[in-house]
Amino acid sequence: MLTGKRLFSTGSRLLKSSTSYNYDFTGLISQTGLPGSVGNTPLLKLNKLSKQTGRNIFAKAEWMNPGGSVKDRAALFIIEQAEKKGLIKPGGTIVEGTAGNTGIGLAHVCRAKGYKCIIYMPNTQAPSKIQTLKLLGCEVNPVPVVPFTDPQNFNHLAKRRAESLENAYWTNQFDNLDNRQAHIEWYLGRYHQIFEDSRS
């Protein structure tokens, strides 16, 4: 939940600046820490395309979410829905099978909310991704790549691990309807953000 000002403002003072480098951003005050800073990424004017088309063209900079991708939005939504439904309680464990940015988003949210995070992932992932997850406090289990139909698939291993633990929640990003709903709600929210930013 956001309180205070936006993390970035794409207001007219910045857009009309004659220099590329300036400090004309409005800061965000997030009373809820990292979860409150997810979203509200800036609009960046694409000057070359804008000039070529004679129109103002902007890009929504989703890589500027705390975990570096749009998946932070889904990770936060999935965990907060689990909290609302009583599927996870304070001090619990979030478990996921992931090969991408969802795991990093979950790791950030878990760290901020005090949950343990266990990730199962294909052992073909970049060492830097594994190291990032470990630095965020995750238990990371790289496993051999096998088809989804194999019981040793990373996603099935994550499910079984969650089932074996007390107060654990398998986020199940591939089949969890909250993941789909996260994108619907966040995308609608983004349209609102873009509309509001483009009016200034």
List the helices and strands and how they pair.
Blueprint: H1 12-15, H2 34-37, E1 43-45, H3 47-53, E2 58-60, H4 71-84, E3 93-97, H5 101-113, E4 116-122, H6 127-135, E5 139-143, H7 154-163, E6 168-170, H8 177-199
Parallel strand pairs: 3-4, 3-6, 4-5
Antiparallel strand pairs: 1-2
Q: What does it look like?
A:
With 200 residues, the chain is of the alpha/beta class. The chain folds into two domains: 12-68 and 188-199, no CATH class; 71-179, 3-Layer(aba) Sandwich (Rossmann fold). Helices cover 42% and strands 13% of the residues. It is built from eight helices and six strands; from the N terminus they run ααβαβαβαβαβαβα. It has helices at residues 12-15, 34-37, 47-53, 71-84, 101-113, 127-135, 154-163, 177-199, and strands at 43-45, 58-60, 93-97, 116-122, 139-143, 168-170. A four-stranded parallel β-sheet has the order 5-4-3-6, with helices on both faces. α4 (71-84) crosses α8. Residues 1-23 have low confidence and may be disordered.
